[in-house]
Amino acid sequence: MEPDRIRNFAIIAHIDHGKSTLADRVLELTGAVSARDMREQLLDSMELERERGITIKAQAVRVRWRGHHLNLIDTPGHVDFTYEVSRSLQACEGALLLVDAAQGIEAQTLANAYLALEGELEIVPVVNKIDLPQADPVGTARELAQLLGETPDRVLRISAKTGQGVEDVLDAIVERIPAPSGDPAAPARALVFDSSYDQYRGVVAFVRVVDGSFETREPLRAMAQRTEFEAEELGVMSPAREPVGSLSAGEVGYVITGLKDVSRLRVGDTLTSRRRPAATPLPGYQDVKPMVFAGIFPTDSDEYPALRDALERLKLNDASLAYEPETSQALGFGFRCGFLGLLHMEIVRERLEREFDLDLLITAPNVAYRATTRSGEVVEVHNPAEMPREVELVEEPYVKASIIVPKDYVGSVMELTNERRGAFDHLEYLSEDRVLLSYELPLGEIVLDFYDQLKSRTRGYASFDYDLAGFKQGELTRVDILVGGEQVDALSLIVHRDAAYDRGRQLVERLRQEIPRQMFDVAVQAAIGSRVIARETIKAKRKDVLAKCYGGDITRKRKLLERQKKGKKRMKQVGGVEVPQEAFLAVLNLDSERKR
Amino acid sequence: MTTGVLHLYVHLPFCAHRCGYCDFVTVVGRQAEHGAYVDALLAELALERDVLAERVETMFLGGGTPTYTAPTELARLLDGLPAAEELTVEANPETVTPALARLLRMGGVTRVSLGAQSFQPRQLSVLERRASPDDVRGAVHTLRDAGFDNISLDLLYGIPGQSPADLDADLAEALALEPEHLSCYELEAKPGTRFTHAQGAELARQAEAMEGYFELVVDTLTAAGYRWYETANFCLEPARRQGRDLRARHNLAYWRGRDYLGIGVGAVSTIAGIRCRNLPGLARYVGVLRAGERPRREVEPLTHETQELERLLLGLRLDEAVALATVEGVLDREAAARLASRGLVDLEAGVGSASAIRLTRRGRFLGSAVTADLVA
Fold first, then answer.
1. In B, residues 314-333, which contact A (CB 8 Å cutoff)?
2. What is the spatial distance between Cα A494 and Cα A365, in angstroms, rounded to a whole number?
3. What is the arithmetic mean of pLDDT over B114-143?
């Protein structure tokens, strides 16, 4: 297909604003999928995605419309995958900006719209769900037009659910979005904007060919990672895989690589032919590093091998997931896992529990810290218990956060961001009533319960998005928790100096409530270095004995003893103290009351 | 078993009324059936006679309320039992009359265990006990008058609404009667009983406040010259009764892991590593024995390890040491050393290594937890 007959586009939308429904309607209307075969929200293939109504992995589908090939490139719908979103957008010349007529613009929409504008994409604004009784198509169109510097009459008004206006959307894609502009004669270059793992055929890369063309069986190279392989099969998704002999400039399709490891072919890399290699890769490749870390332990230590296998299998499909073995004296054998962000962590946890049926204990999440020791050595710390005690300085990751709220809640948001060490950047009125607030915040303050707090203090009206913004020095200190004089590694934390006392006290108090009384007094302490900042004592039991025992009930007494013994085996021993696993769980939950 | 079993338990299930907290096999009323039941008991005894030793050391008539059994039938039963060095009968205070006391004496009973429970009318009514405080005192005097010189009183503590002062008063009242033996049980809310249903929440609520009651009991009784020889049992020091060892010999046999034969509905026997329980159900028990057959039983073979476990569990309730050689397979020696360093157990030195183990005073208050720790 000639490049001037190709249109590559993405759909940018907030969760629940109707992206998948619009995609379904497009497939149906263009005849790519008959209505009868239609599974709702076809693009979201993973069970979890369908259930949570979000898109985790991007995919691409080719449809035909009035003599053109339209390539719909689906983008992941969450903050944690900003880089993947940016690469997907990079594969397009234009994007539909889809906004719910009843909800208006949300922070995440805005963030992605900015990404698209930065990538110089043509944006087609679309107001969706105009059929809803509470819809405000006119107001929402005005808001969108203002944001994009367009006139409101250029904003399309549709209902993806009923199909109203969807043809106009397809026409607008053809008319407004430019054709791809690569050089068909230049050495071949293609952008990898997504990949997945096929259990039989290895890594499947989704690519946008920018220059030149690729042929089946051609020897290829990924330029950033220097991974070499052969194009075992080229093809397009329509929406099932459909092999083609070649893919040329402007086209979007897949490459079956035969590689056995997704981490060898990362999103953002440039493919070129080894027969006639390009001189320079496409711009913008980044090696995305995990920023949020947590320990994952099986509640039953016998499940450790199963957990290891499960992580290996997840990693096949998720190059951003990092993990390494970790041993905790409190929680046993497990893994320290690195995630792009909180949602990523939540998704991994749910997949481990659901798809692999594992029962897990997950420590409070923490961010990556950079510590400079007295000797000048810089170490990256992923686990608070590994923070060197003698440090010159500690740096922590910061984010630029955008929060959109009705103007009445500006005060509540300011209060919360103040508590979380946020630095105000600017405030912008998106419409008469809705305000965009920008902040710089430590990521570590967000991984606790920031989002929950934000939601509850704004009655659910706030929307929130963030972008990583580098490392900054912080007045951070490591707080250790000691039970019976022994440090509980899984409970160490790194907090801002001003919060150390309060957080230490909270943890100690919670542990006092959760650890059952023992046969002796047990001290529960929070300490910075050797200085104890909080202490509670769990008083010894005075009595634990079955009063009566006679010939008729020896069996019952023995069974009680056996049950008691079994219960003890499930306890974790810390400092000679039996701590039930539930106690750790309760304390860890205190730290991670965020989510959803 | 060539030597024969030395300890016999006889179960008499009849009661005038079932107390709310009770979970024993009991039968209310049915006086007409007492005779048939005693027939069945004697029949079962005859079937098991060769299991028993020539000379039985101890017998125990428990219930139920054995002394509620129709007097002629009770007399007939006592008459039919073999002679024993110790024969204990459980009695409720309101059933003790001079005639009954005489009947027991004549029947060879050497020891009476009196279910006093409390001396406070309020607490007795919570327990649904029919005896008044005066009945308890009267029963002791009646038994003394009949010549009994080994009387035990059962007391309950941790009764809903019981204050430390109430418990103090109960102990003082009990001591004033100078019993040879006292059994003091914490009231347990046993699952399924009417009492647990009505009072369980209140018991749970006051559990912590009542933690000190056990210590109060032990302190008071030991100060009064009683030996705390088992978790819940106390006896007068020998010096106070012409050098007699007043421990309950029958129960001591249980705690030392000796074999015992139990007859009667729901009764348990443990002989040569096999535990049997006669099934509950009075009519069937009587019917089967009338037909000359053995009662239906639930059989539980005890493995060597189980036997060791029970030896440890029971032995540690006593104030005497358990020989390590008898519990070798189940004892965690490291745990024992650790608990010793915490002052919860005493290890007796033997040749080269420890030879016996017992709980310290503090360890005895925490007996269940310590025992669970000691099990490997």
1. 314, 317
2. 11
3. 90
Instruction: Write down the ipTM of this complex.
Output: 0.90
Contact of A361 with A312, CB cutoff 8 Å: no
CB contact under 8 A, B254 and A565: no
pLDDT above 80 for A52:
no
Provide the token pair at A358. Answer: 């594992």
Tell me what pLDDT residue A47 has.
52
Domain A189-273 has CATH 3.30.2090.10: no
State the smallest CA–CA distance between residue B187 and chain A in angstroms. Answer: 8
From B249's Cα to the closest Cα of chain A, the distance in A is 12
Residues A116-169: tens digit of each pLDDT? 888 889 999 999 999 999 999 999 999 899 888 889 999 999 999 999 999 999
For chain A, the structural domain boundaries read 3-176, 189-273, 292-362, 370-474, 477-591
- Answer whether the bond into residue B287 is a cis peptide, omega within 30°: no
Q: May I ask the CATH architecture of the domain A477-591? A: 2-Layer Sandwich (3.30)
Please state the pTM of the whole predicted model.
0.68
| Pair B252, B236: CB distance under 8 Å | no
Domain B7-255 in CATH 3.80.30.20? The answer is yes
pLDDT tens column, B178-198: 999 999 998 876 667 777 777
Q: How far is CA A227 from the centre of its chain?
A: 26
Q: Which of B368, B370, B373 to mutate to test the interface with A (most CBs of A within 10 A)?
A: B368
Q: Which helix (H) or strand (E) holds A477?
A: strand A476-483
pLDDT band at B109 (very low <50, low <70, confident <90, very high): very high
Which CATH architecture does the domain made up of A370-474 adopt?
2-Layer Sandwich (3.30)
